[in-house]
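Human: We require from you a standard protein entry with sequence in single-letter code and fold as tokens, and nothing else.

Assistant:
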Amino acid sequence: MARVSDIADAAKRLIVGRPVRSDRLGHTLLPKRIALPVFASDALSSVAYAPDEILLTLSIAGLSATVISPWVGLAVAAVLAVVVTSYRQNVHAYPSGGGDYEVVTTNLGPKAGLTVASALLVDYVLTVAVSVSSGAQYAAVAIPSLRGHEALFAVSIVAVLMVMNLRGVKESGRLFAIPTYLFMAAVLTTAIVGFVRLAAGGLPPAESADLTILPESGFEAGLVGLAGGFLVLRAFASGAAALTGVEAISNGVPAFKPPKSRNAATTLALLGSLSITFMISILVLAKAAHVHYVELPATNLLRDGVAVGDSYEQHPVLGQLTHSVFSGFSPAIVVVSVVTGLILVLAANTAFNGFPVLGSILARDGFLPRQLHTRGDRLAFSNGILALAGGAVVLIWAFDAQVTRLIQLYIVGVFVSFTLSQLGMVRHWNRHLATEPDPAARSRMKRSRVINSIGLVMTGMVLIVVLITKFSHGAWIAILAMVIVYVIMLGVRRHYDQVRDETSMDDDHSVLALPSRVHAIVLLSRLHKPTMRALAYARATRPSVLEAVTVAVDPEDVAELRKQWDALDVPVPLTVLDSPFREITRPVLGYVKSIRRESPRDLVVVYIPEYVVGHWWEQLLHNQSALRLKTRLLFSPGVVVASVPWQLQSSHQQEAKTWQATHPESARAAALKERAARETRRPDEPTRPGPTDA
């Protein structure tokens, strides 16, 4: 068993790295240049598909409806600007890393805070599943051999992201910073070149520019009437996917270098500016290049009045725009495609930084298992990282890494947290305005309240539209998952509260009272050294009553045991328990309970001799009866189980190997000392055994 443990420990060190001392926690904090790619990759990756969602929704009403796509994008940008501005206030007011959970809990109450927490936890898992599945789909296009194996490939990506984050936030941030910055540079270059060519009148049309869009039934007249207005709202809600990931920075404030709040606020401003610039640029250039993007291209895209059919391959909006902007220069097209695929995968890394921190805070508050609150060897919240990876893998496998199915579950959770957070901040300013006498401070608070009020209205409207338009398409699964997580967290808290109440010190001093007597029982099956050691230990404690107990499974063995017992003249009475069905555990339990019934105030101590072995396969050959018996005795009140170890030779050998492995410098020093002694020893001097000779 020890050898298996050593192999597992060596493998862990190889994959994760050496443990980091707790006093090195400050060295793991992130500067802004690394924090931006770490926390902004999810929001920035939305630029790759938010324009697609807007155009796809508007295309339902035909070609003329897509003309307003930049205006829809502008409305999304306005909401994004308001949300970013609001969250800049959040990180100053609540810098502990609780983010929306802390804001809502403080201002709206624990139940509302738990609602936000459940929404964020589910959304983080969905972020990983959607992002990685999207990256797997991109990879399958580039590598045809991956088609049909997207789910397995996506699971492998999750495993890689998990390992990198287990190595530490700063280490993973440095690794993932390069592709994130490359994506920013690629999209920014595409926008600049595109606008230059547009101004010069030389922006070539997109590959789908010569196609027309067939409107769906009921939208033949375009965006008119109530249905048209609702469709615009639906496009706005779909484009609001660009807001996902904004909340991650407010949850990750503790990971920033000091001054934490100011650095987090600056990073938020950079994130908002980049996202708005990229999204509006793509939508404007896509309109200028006449990019057409529909949900069912085979039937809804027409060439000369005829559907293009299944042979037509529709590329994403950014992909079509790249071909238009960089027409005639294929290396740029390849670079943009590659870094876009990478950023979609790395968007999951934002969740790997947000989920563990939120999980740690919830565990601290008693709503999740306490193991999530502790840091691992590399000062990362390892258990939270493992939990997130496990949940994402389940979703990816259940939905076969199909983004079109997973995306319907998305966005709901993040807008639940947005809306409640805005309401919480409005309450926050109302509470502080009631006690603030300084006119300048009151003026700032009123401006902040106006911003949060606007954000509340906007995010609340988006949430309603998302719920209405996506509920029947799969959003109900996300809502159900939030309810389940909410109930589980309440159950965990209830359990911890119950344990605290049961174990807290009160007026009941019975736990301090000494037992009337101690009744010691040494279990044995035959007489050998482990048994005699257990008897010696039990006698050394000087119990009130001491007896040896064996179970009569085989009459001949019991007779031989009695004979040896009398021959050795052991000064302890031997009790033999009858077992007509050849059981061991049940007779011992019954005997212990009978002692407790006769003397309820007595303490019963059961001594069990056990072998300590050095190999995992030896463990399978020994101690199984003892393990079963200990497991049952632990549930018996007033009973203490004491294991008496007997180290076999293999355990001593394994202990020596373990010592040499964990103290390499000491072992090497001993070897060098012995070597020097041998070299300086006179030929006629007798050899003395050294540490390496033993």
The longest strand covers residues 603-612. The chain is about 65% helix and 5% strand. Residues 281 and 344 are 19 Å apart (CA to CA).
